[in-house]
Structure formats: structure tokens, C-alpha cells
## 1
Amino acid sequence: MTPESTPVVLGATPEAASGAPHVEQPVAYDAILLAGFGGPEGQDDVIPFLRNVTRGRGIPDERLEEVATHYRHFGGVSPINAQNRALREALEEALRARGIDLPVLWGNRNWAPYLSDTVAEAAEQGHTKLLAIATSAYSSYSSCRQYREDFAAALDAGGLLGRVQIDKVRQFFDHPGFVQPFIDGVRDALDAFAAELPAELIHVLFSTHSIPNADAAKSGPAERGFGEGGAYEAQHRAVAEVVMAATGRSDIGWDLVYQSRSGPPSVPWLEPDINDAITDLAARGVQAVVIVPLGFVSDHMEVMWDLDNEAMQTAAEVGIRATRVPTPGLDPNYVNGLVDLLVERLEGTPVEQRPAATDLGPWYDVCRPGCCENARLGFRPAVAGVAP
Ligand SMILES: CC1=C(CCC(=O)O)c2cc3nc(cc4[nH]c(cc5[nH]c(cc1n2)c(C)c5CCC(=O)O)c(CCC(=O)O)c4C)C(CCC(=O)O)=C3C
Ligand SMILES: [Fe+2]
């Protein structure tokens, strides 16, 4: 690994380093890199996969055993790899439809095909300028910086630092293509409940992955002053507001809630947990909840288990109706939105012409110094950012 004192900063122009514009000059990228989380593809993969994910993270063994049962329930297969294979194909097709003939390569952080192998193969095939999309919309260590660090590690492992460039499209939490599927889903769900119940008995819960409070506080650029929840919480809240406004249902209440907490109980993570929130709503007399998987791009294990199984069961236990709206998945709005994000970088679209559904964005092409640092693990080199 590169010595800790030498930050790896590829793809950052001098303008970006000054902190002024958030956009980069156009680059003639020669391949797209779709970067996924990765998931097991059979029972024998489950434990090795979980070890990959949690290496050095202090996740208790009991938690690993518990999460393993979620995967075992589905034959040891996470749906996430199939979803990313399908997304890869959809992206290639959508690019071609716009006359862009670039291959879309796919690599994962935690399971085969591993990013290090994908990047090494890309280099063998002569690709030297990769534009990455991580399947993660918001700012935080887990959803942004960790991908950037793993890109740097993949380049380092292949001896490719300085020879192959990996840039990354901006965090797309407020790109209209990502937001629209949630608007459509919430509108449909509210229409259905509102046909039978008065507005005050219906509630919307926007759910996202909990992260340690310390990671949340460091999410996004420090200079933006987002407060304790950092950019992570601010972005989710802003998108939830946009979704609710678009439905026109200002008479229906909503909250931002969290799911899938791990780590030792002594470490504080973002709250409230969705199950506690559902229980509280029932106690207040609410009769129907709309669950919005706002933090997730597709129906992977966190959605299938923690929402469709656990949260639904909680709702049943406390006697209220619940429905879960779809994730963006392969929604054409989402796929075309991702292509728009790629085109922005290929063309160097000026910041004022970039769509953003909230006034927090459009987000940065190149992450600001210290953005999304991990409070526990300390500094690791990363690409697609400005040096600290
Ligand atoms: C913010 C965030 C996203 C959303 C952004 C994004 O989409 O990337 C996300 C996605 C995902 N997380 C996933 C799976 C897991 N995450 C874990 C653990 C953790 N996640 C964290 C955060 C996030 N995770 C954190 C702070 C930890 C603690 C360990 C650490 O500090 O790093 C563990 C360990 C066991 C456990 O404790 O749950 C597993 C198995 C899968 C694959 C699902 C499938 O297989 O279908 C996906 C898409
Ligand atoms: Fe996770």
C-alpha cells in the first residue's frame, strides 16, 4: 500500500483544489466502471463475504451470525449481483442509444468480480481513463469515500497508480432521475391509502441505512457546516422534502428513520430505528405507513430482509397496515439519470446546467478535503478527491 503520508489524488484539476468550482474539465474517458457492494452467490460464500465486509470494523460475531441467517434464508444468495449485472447491461444499452460507444465494466468492493480484478483487466485491455459510478447515492464513508479508497487500493494492487485514472460521478441523491422513482412510488402508495383512510391516520417513513454518529458527523465537506448528522442526514432530509412536496400531500406526516444498524451497542448510530418508529406511530393511532427505501438504489438484502421482512412484521404485530415503495432498480428515469451523470463528465457540463432536485446540490465532481473521513479507521489514500 502507498505510505499513509502520500495521498493518492487522481483526476483533481487545480480549479478543484482551490475549492471554487464543483465541476471538472471534460475528459475522454475510455470505459465506465460500475462499482457495486457485492454479495454472496451461495451458502459457502456467506461467511467469507461477511468477513470481507467487516474486516477491521469491530462488528461482533453475534451480529455476523445474525446477518448470515438473512442470507441463508435466501439460499445464501444476495440479489445484489444479479441487479448490478442487469444495471450494467441497461447502462450500456442506454449509452449506445445516445451514440456513446463505451464499455461498462463491473467490479465489487466485497465479492467477485472484485474491483482489483476488473481494474487490472481494464488496464490490460488498454483502458486508462475510467469514469466510475458507485451504486450509492449519498455522502458518507460507507456510501462514498470507501468506494474511492477501494479504487485507489485496486490501482495500487495492480501497480497502476499514475497509469490508470479513475474518476467518479457526483453523489446523485438529488439527481431527478434518482428521485423520480421515489416520487412515483410514494404518490401511488398515498393514493391507495388515502382512498380508505383520513390523512392524519397515514404516515410516511423514509428509511435509510444507519451509520455511526461519528461517521455521519464527518460526512460531506467540513466547510459546509452540516452539523451533527453531517451531509448524510441533510441530504436524506432534503430529498424526503422534495418527494413529499411533489406528491402535494402536505396533510400527511413523515419522518426520516434508520435501519440495519450493526456494530457494538456501546457505539451510537443514527436513530430512530424504523421498527421503533412504527411502534410509536401505532401507539399514536396511525393506521397505515408508507415505507420508502430512500437510501437504497435496488432491492438488495437490506431492503428484502430489514424492510420487507422485519419492518413489515413489526407493523403486523402492532396492527397497522404498511406498504413498501419500489427502489429505483432499473426504472428508466434512474438508468437515464445515471447516463446523464456520465455525459456531464464526458462533456464538462457547466454547474448551472446540471440538474439537482434539492438546493444542496449539484454535488462535487471531486470530493473536498477530508470529505467523508472514517472516524474509526483513519486516513487511507483515495482517488477522485482533493488532497487533505
Ligand atoms: C451507508 C451504507 C449503505 C448504503 C450505501 C450503499 O449502498 O453502498 C450500505 C449498503 C450495503 N450494505 C450491505 C451489506 C452489509 N453492510 C454491513 C455493514 C455496514 N454497512 C454500513 C453502511 C452502509 N451499508 C456500515 C456503516 C456497516 C458497518 C460496518 C462498517 O463500518 O463498514 C454488513 C456487515 C454485517 C452487518 O453488520 O450488517 C453487511 C453484510 C449491502 C449488500 C446487501 C446485499 O448483500 O444484498 C449493501 C448494498
Ligand atoms: Fe452495509
## 2
Amino acid sequence: MQLLTPEQMGQADQMAAASGIDSHRLMMKAGEAVSAAVLRRFPAAVRMVVLCGPGNNGGDGYIAAKALFEAGCNVSIYHFGDLANLKGDVAQAFNACPVKPQPLAAYAPKANDVVVDALFGAGLTRSLDPAVQSLILNLRKAGSNVVAVDLPSGISGGTGAALGTAVTASHTITFMRPKPGHFLLPGREHCGTLETFDIGIPQRILTSVAGNTYLNEPSLWKAHLPATSIQSHKFKRGHLTVFSGGHGTTGAARLSATAGLKAGAGLVTLATPSNACTEATAHLTAIMLREINNVRELSHWLEDKRLSAFVLGPGFGIGEKARDYTNLLAGNPVVLDADGITSFAESPDRLFYSLSKHPTTFVLTPHEGEFARLFPDIHSDKSLGKLEKARAAASRSNAVVLYKGADTVITAPDGRAAINANAPPWLATAGSGDVLSGIIGSLLAQEMPPFEAACAGAWLHGAAGQNAGEGLSAEDLPNGLPKYSQIS
Ligand SMILES: NC(=O)C1=CN([C@@H]2O[C@H](COP(=O)(O)OP(=O)(O)OC[C@H]3O[C@@H](n4cnc5c(N)ncnc54)[C@H](OP(=O)(O)O)[C@@H]3O)[C@@H](O)[C@H]2O)[C@@H](O)CC1
Ligand SMILES: Nc1ncnc2c1ncn2[C@@H]1O[C@H](COP(=O)(O)OP(=O)(O)O)[C@@H](O)[C@H]1O
Ligand SMILES: [K+]
């Protein structure tokens, strides 16, 4: 699913009007859909309260209020801004509304109120007025049920950031296409359930304005998923190498390797220093072992051209050895995670220089702390949201960047971006990231391109978390992976 920024949605609106589509008719459909959603969810509501802002979001509110009134509901409207300034479609919606509004300051929220939040949507450009913020706090205190129109007021549709105190809705109804702010935090938490309603803007217009930001769903990468055929054999399904730390620090790499095998790689080898071989052997069966102690031994191992992908970082140790291995692996499909990323904290340019000499084959999987180490200036740039930060990082590093979190974002150097939204909160557990890097390494080994492998990896990791259920530990995740043939 393509996501549209508020600016792109605005462009679509203008193009729709220019092509002869009646903009007031679009507003009618939007407002009536809001009324229907409210009635469906709260059929026994005592009082409906519609909060209307000065722009088209408020216009949707006046239409919804009229429809609710005509359905026999007890409806009150409270408005923000000067009614004398209403223009165009909003003025028309206001004039046709049988319920006359009172100023916002007159509203005292009650627990049983069902509130339609039509204050601000896609046109929010700055932090909310203090009077609006204090009303939002009162709504929260009263515990009123809120249905948000397009976006919860105060949430930026582009970044998901809260511009001041933002409305928290139990349901949000948006139109045509969701926006990044519906899935990025904190926006996602403010939306409640999300409904996308088709008000009739033609697909050709939406496609012509859309960029390359997507919700991370199987349709984005399913065609690239490895398919097992009767003619397959283990070498055709790729050979993944996971580098392990030394004695006492092999757990993270073993988790990663196990996930790699379960995610379909035909062969998985744990490359361990000599002092960890006994420990690793005691824990492994299907996964193979190879002693690799230094760059010379790694170079020798890399002469085997059947090796197809590598995971470097989980539990590996921070330092020169990680940097040397990384440089030697440049140009190969590699997931660089954890210690592999942190090893470049003092000299990120060394990594970027190394990656700049090859086509994109690396996937970097930083959590926020690791992201800040590798891209300190991008991380601290307050003008950028998570999506723009991850895009800037991919462009600088010439790698696919998977910026982890509850709202993981995956970006490619060519500008493509996907937001992942299927990860349950109980994935925040020790070793969960190691499993993710193993899954992505496995998909790379099975010849998935890096952006698709990272997107599929994040989604499969989320699905595995859902299947393994609350209370899982990272060891449970590989067994929760869904079967590829059942993904739709
Ligand atoms: N997309 C579609 O297909 C369709 C979209 N539709 C609907 O249109 C909505 C977008 O409408 P919109 O562009 O008029 O923006 P909206 O959110 O009403 O706010 C703009 C107003 O708020 C003001 N303002 C902004 N920030 C402020 C602040 N912090 N504090 C105070 N004021 C502030 C701003 O004033 P200004 O910045 O100009 O001073 C302006 O007056 C969209 O969310 C959806 O609900 C439907 O009708 C059907 C078709
Ligand atoms: N609150 C959350 N909801 C959903 N997923 C989360 C949440 N917090 C973390 N995750 C996911 O869990 C994984 C944690 O990885 P990481 O931070 O590297 O942990 P570790 O180093 O313990 O393996 C990432 O895939 C991240 O996206
Ligand atoms: K709103």
C-alpha cells in the first residue's frame, strides 16, 4: 500500500478539482463516512460532540454533524477559529449544517460523550494553540471516546510527531490513502484503529502524485520470496555464514544462525574463533561450524564461491577485527548489525567509503542507539522524522537501512521506504534483533534483493512474534515464522 504525505494528498485534491471533480462532493462523502463510522461504533451514544477547526477538516466535521443530526442523534458542535473567516467548501458545509456551533472554550467534556475530532487534519502546520491543547487534556481526563477525522488533531501526517498535546482517538478514519503519520510513532498510538475510506479520487491521480513510501506488506516483496521447487537442493537455497564472538559470547550469533536456517537458507555455517568451537559445537546440530580467527582465514574461506550471504555483528565484539572483516566482505550480501555497526562509531566514513565502491549489497540494522553512533548528525536533526532520517542514512551509506523500533522503517539508497507495522510489543526482548538479522541474512542468501529482503525480514519477524505470542523469548521466534506459501 502506497502512503501519501499530506502534501501529496493536497496535490491529489487539486488535480481532482482541476479534472472537474466537485471538491464539495468529496467533502460530503468524507463527512458522511465519518458519521457512518461513528454510528456503527457507538450506536447507543447519549451525546455526539463534533469539534470543528477552521479548514477542510472542520468542513468534514460540519457534514458529519448534519448527517448525525439527521440520523436522530443529539449533536453539539464546538468550533475553533473565527467563523467569519470560513471559506469555500467549509463555509458551504457550515451554512448547510442545522446545528449551530458554540466556541470551543464553552465545551466541558463528559465521560459518555462521543467526540468527533475535526479540528485539524492534513493541514496542521504548527504546534496547537494552548487553548486547544488544554481542551485535549480535558478530553483525556474525562475519558471521552474520540473518533478522529483524517488524523488525530496535533499529529503530523508526514512524520507522526505530536505538535503539542495531541488528541488520542479510539478510531481514525482517513480518506483514499493513509499517511506515514498513521504508522510512525507516536502517531500510530494516537490513531486507535485505522479505517481508510474511498471518497472517489481516481487511482490515476493518486498514482501520479505518490512517491515511493509504502506500508510494509507482503505485496511489496512477495514476488521475490524464495520458492522451494522439487528441483531445489541445499546449495540452490543459499549458504549463510554467521560470524560468532569468542568463548562465552556465542549466544547471539547462534540465535541468528538458527533463525537463518528456519528462514530457509539451505546451509548455515557459524564462523567461530577457535576458543569458542567447543561451546558452539555443544549447542549446534544442523548448523555447521567453521573455525575462522582472522582476516587471512576469512579470505581463504571466501574463496568458496557458493557462500551467498553473511551476518556480522551479533555478539561479535567491537573493534578492529569487525572493521577488517566488514571491509573484506564489502560487495557481498551482508547484514551488518549490533557490534558490527558500533565498531564504526569512531569512523563511520570508513564504512561508507568501503560500501561506496560497490552496488548496494549491505543491510544495516541499527536500533536507535546504533543509528546515533553511525549517523550522529542525522539522528540529532530535529527537523527530520524517522522516515527522512532513515532515507538520509541509506543515501549516505549506499546500504539498505533498517531503522529498528516499534515502528521499524526500511529505506534504500534509491529512495524507496517502507514502514513496518505488524510487530507486537513483546518483540522487545533480548536477542530479538539477532533473530531478525538471521532472517534477513537467510533471505539474502536465497537471492532476495537487499531492500526486499529487509522488508520481508521485518514483516516475518513481526509475524513470528505474533505467532509465538506474548511472553515469548527470542528462542521461540524462529518456530513462529510463517510458511512462505501461506503468506498472502
Ligand atoms: N484529501 C482529500 O482528498 C480530502 C480531504 N478532506 C479533508 O481536508 C483536510 C485538510 O484540509 P486543510 O488543508 O484545509 O487542512 P486542515 O487540517 O483543516 O487545517 C488547515 C487549517 O488549520 C489552520 N491551522 C493549521 N495549523 C494550525 C494550528 N496549529 N493552529 C491553528 N490553526 C492552524 C490553517 O490555518 P493557516 O495555517 O492557513 O493559518 C487552516 O485554516 C483533511 O485532513 C481532510 O479532513 C476532505 O474534505 C475531503 C477531501
Ligand atoms: N515496542 C516494540 N514493539 C514492537 N517491536 C519492537 C519493540 N521494541 C523493539 N522491537 C523490535 O525488537 C527488535 C529488538 O532488536 P534489538 O534492539 O537489536 O534487540 P537485541 O539486541 O536484544 O536483539 C527489533 O526488531 C525491534 O524492531
Ligand atoms: K482531526
